[in-house]
């Protein structure tokens, strides 16, 4: 039976003080390994090492948007990968045009000895270490023998997206950072799993929405309307990383299926229906 293993490298919000920032690994049934967002600092390498995932093993990254807690760890990913795999092919980075502009700014502002251009990035030896793949919402991209991905608009900031990944007859959807989002519901129809941000509880909905984020109730409503089989909450702010029960309670008010809250280093395996 086809399956996907999902490893949560970081599950905290941008202001979290007790969890790493967002990064998720999908190990698909056909052998395809995907990194969804790159956290910040060296969190990807540290969390991968703790889980026994070679931190240099990534060949494909899907980015949701350009905020530092989702993007800035890309510099560390490239450094670790380049040291361990000096002859590796370019890392394929899938991102929107808006995120690409910020990736270029990232490398312009750090002494990483990386030069960017319209095709990708090269190190000081002239070896191409990254290849840009600019995507549009709804565009389907092939990532493996039976693995495809497509992005959809997120309601966070201009150029933000979420990602749907299909593999082995099942779909896993990641919301990215977003307010309650009809585009996500449309993209999540019939998905095996929805991984959805849950920044705050419903009684703080105005506060969350004002910062471009969802509540746990928003996540539950989205899951129910999309008809997904299972919901996992992530991108938790500091109090809820310690005690996610208030978030789970809010989500359960709206979604009748299984719900859990992810913590750093959690791993789950989902199988096709």
Topology of this protein?
Layout: E1 3-10, E2 23-27, E3 33-36, H1 43-51, E4 60-62, H2 68-71, H3 74-84, E5 91-95, H4 97-108, E6 115-116, E7 120-122, E8 128-134, E9 141-142, E10 147-153, E11 161-167, E12 170-174, H5 182-187, E13 193-197, H6 205-210, H7 216-226, E14 231-234, H8 238-242, H9 245-252, E15 259-261, E16 267-271
Parallel strand pairs: 3-4, 4-5, 5-8, 12-13, 13-14, 14-15
Antiparallel strand pairs: 1-2, 1-16, 2-3, 6-7, 7-8, 9-10, 10-11, 11-12
Shape: globular
Low-confidence residue ranges: none
Q: Classify the secondary structure makeup into a structural class.
A: alpha/beta
Query: Which band does the percent of strand residues land in?
Result: 25-35%
Which value, in Å, is the CA radius of gyration?
A: 17 Å
Q: Which CATH class is shown?
A: Alpha Beta
Counted beta strands:
16
Mean pLDDT: 95
Following the backbone from N to C, one meets helices and strands in this order, namely: EEEHEHHEHEEEEEEEHEHHEHHEE
**What fold name stands as the CATH topology?**
Metallo-beta-lactamase, Chain A
Give the termini distance in whole angstroms: 9 Å
Write the CATH homologous superfamily: Ribonuclease Z/Hydroxyacylglutathione hydrolase-like
Strand order of the largest sheet: 6-7-8-5-4-3-2-1-16
Number of helical regions: 9
């Amino acid at each position: 039976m086809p399956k996907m293993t999902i490893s949560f490298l970081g599950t905290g919000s941008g202001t979290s003080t007790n969890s790493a920032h967002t990064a998720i690994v999908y190990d698909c049934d056909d052998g395809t390994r995907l990194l969804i967002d790159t956290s910040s600092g060296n969190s990807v390498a540290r969390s991968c090492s703790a889980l026994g995932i070679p931190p240099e093993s990534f060949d494909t990254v899907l980015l949701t948007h350009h905020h530092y807690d989702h993007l800035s760890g890309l510099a560390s990913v490239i450094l670790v990968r380049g040291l361990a795999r000096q002859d590796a092919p370019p890392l394929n980075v899938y991102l929107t045009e808006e995120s690409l502009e910020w990736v270029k700014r990232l490398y312009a502002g750090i002494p990483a000895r990386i030069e960017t251009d319209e095709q990708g990035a090269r190190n000081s030896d002239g070896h191409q270490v990254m290849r840009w793949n600019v995507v549009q919402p709804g565009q389907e991209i092939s990532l493996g023998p039976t693995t495809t991905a497509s992005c959809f608009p997120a309601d966070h900031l201009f150029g933000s997206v979420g990602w749907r990944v299909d593999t082995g007859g099942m779909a896993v959807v990641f919301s990215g950072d977003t307010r309650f989002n009809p585009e996500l519901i449309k993209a999540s129809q019939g998905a095996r799993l929805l991984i959805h941000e849950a920044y705050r509880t419903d009684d703080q909905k105005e506060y969350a929405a004002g910062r471009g984020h969802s509540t746990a109730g928003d996540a539950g409503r989205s899951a129910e309307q999309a008809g997904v089989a299972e919901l996992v909450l992530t991108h938790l702010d500091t109090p809820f990383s310690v005690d996610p029960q208030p978030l789970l309670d809010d989500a359960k008010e709206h979604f009748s299926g299984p719900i859990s809250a992810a913590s750093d280093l959690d791993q789950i395996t989902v199988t096709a229906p």
